[in-house]
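Supplementary notes for students who missed Thursday's class. We covered one full example, reproduced here. Read the sequence, then the structure, then the short commentary at the end.
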Amino acid sequence: MNTDITTKMKINKPASDVFEAIADPEKMGGYWFSSGTSRVEQGKTITWRYEEYGAEGDIHVLKVEENKEIVFEWGETTVTLTFEETEGATIIVVTESGLKADDPDIVAKMLGQKEGWVYMLTCMKGYLENGITTLRASLVH
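Structure (token representation):
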């Protein structure tokens, strides 16, 4: 069973803006995690914090190709973000891989991760296109 989770969204901004919204921890704080210990750069281990949820986690950045791709590991999975600019907009594709097919909770985990990526991309779209910062940390668990 393929357990990869792929989520795509069109954001009406250039790839450089969408890329920077992930790479720059200050910008990321406007729509996703409240803070990060460093800019996303290849080889770095960064702590992302969600102050509102009292949570934090480390990512290890495996690859960065400016305005094109970011790959990082978090927990047991690998996340690949690609940025494809087309006609003044960017299609961002998030693929999370590495969930174990034999995990008895695999369906719930896959649905939860998919929900999280759809929510994150929606918050990013609102932030980048309209300056909305009130969507982040609104998901109720």
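Commentary. Residues 79 and 96 are 4 Å apart (CA to CA). The chain has a mean pLDDT of 94. If anything here is unclear, bring it to office hours.
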